[in-house]
Amino acid sequence: MASRRVGIFVATMTGLAELCAEEIERTLKETGVETRHLLMEALDAEALVGLDTVVIVSSTYGQGDIPDNGQDFYRAIKGRGSLAGLRYGVFGLGDRTYADTFCRAGDLWDALFAEKGATRVTPVQRHDASAGTLAEDEAAAWAARWAGELGEAG
After folding, report:
1. What are φ and ψ of residue 72, in 5° steps?
2. Domain of 23: which CATH number?
């Protein structure tokens, strides 16, 4: 079986999403998946080239917005053509206290990749900051649940 290449892209305001990405990366590497994580600032849609799977790890801030460092990347992907053949997953961070915008940035990423024809590997995971659980622990557990499916893509 060919090696699967996974890119983990991080949109964050405080750094928590990056901690989650590190745990996802560690979990996937333990299953033999080649992966790396990148902060979204200064990236364009070319960052997707050569990847089999994309994992978006994004917090939500303000009025349900994508963090500042992810907005240009989001627009770049929106302006790109089809992403058919690419697989993706989304780990969204939010706070249910803000019910109207809870994990909205994650939902925006999910809708964008679906609109572009990419295939979701697993349902969107939404971490609730007010739930009393560690986001990075939930991120690792989430990745462990679907990591084995990556080998089935090829």
Report:
1. -65, -40
2. 3.40.50.360
Confidence of residue 129 (pLDDT cuts 50, 70, 90): very high
What's the maximum distance between 2 C-alpha atoms anywhere in the chain?
A: 45
Q: Are 53 and 87 in contact (CB under 8 A)?
A: yes
46/76 Cα distance (integer angstroms): 9
Residue 48 lies in a domain: yes
Q: For the whole model, what pTM was predicted?
A: 0.93
For residue 153, tell me if it sits in a domain. no
As for how many domains the chain has, the answer is 1
